[in-house]
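Final report, closing paragraph on structural work. Over the funding period we assembled a curated collection of sequence-structure pairs, and we close with a single example.
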Amino acid sequence: MMRNIAVLIFLFFGQEIFAQDVLYFSNGSKLTVKVTEINLNDIKYKELENMEGPTYVVSKTEIVLIEYANKKTEIINSNPTPFEPKKETPEVVKSTNENPKKIAAPNLYYMNQNLLSINALALANGDITLIYDRELFNSKMSISFLGGYNFNSRMGILNFFIADGKENAKKKYDAGLGINFMPRNTKRVQYFVGLLGKYMAYDYKELINTINNQKTYANASGNQLALMVSNGWIYRISPFFNFKIFGSLGISLNSNALSIGTSTNSSLPKAYLGYCFGYRF
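Its predicted structure, as stored:
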């Protein structure tokens, strides 16, 4: 009985502790509170340190967005009024010739740091490929994780090259890890350059022996590991919807990689292209 009561107390106080909402003001500041009500023109909230205390009211014109405790965001005012300090607010003036600095409103298109997208170009080769990007260092760098599954080895030109590389070769899946660098982090079209390591697994028929011109094959598996240089662009259509295009070119790192036709040169160029649509969160 005492254990159940302790669990209930933990759940009750745990919700109070973590039920934190964040208000982003048009002057660039933010405030961690508990939002209690949203009206047509106002937002009501309480201080986390005094939940039993008074309810505060702020006009929606002063709020850019709300980030709720569950990390969901709601844009309140996508075109906020520029912040003007009140006359009665004391301020320190260093020089009469110094122009006051304007406080920039938050860039809504760089608000969310995660992007989950699907490579539409890979569908033409019978692949379902998802790419997850996590932005770091104020959107100056990102880490990409790639995963793809081939559902039809007879679709697309790429699968014909794979089948030509080894006897009846069929692609199974892709996996990749990349790191990208972005010179600019303010524009809605963002260029990036980086490195992509890509692993591909495939099945094929391995020749066992030949007797009286009769060939015997056995099922076998192979893989190909490639290191490529990537170049591309991210188009931030909205704070939540993005698409990106990129091209990657490099070489194989393992000796049993696929070749073209009867060639045994494993250092033939390897390429990967992407045209991705994704949701940012």
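Helices lie at 2-18, 120-123, 156-165. Confidence is low (pLDDT under 50) at residues 6-17, 260-266. We thank the funder for supporting this effort.
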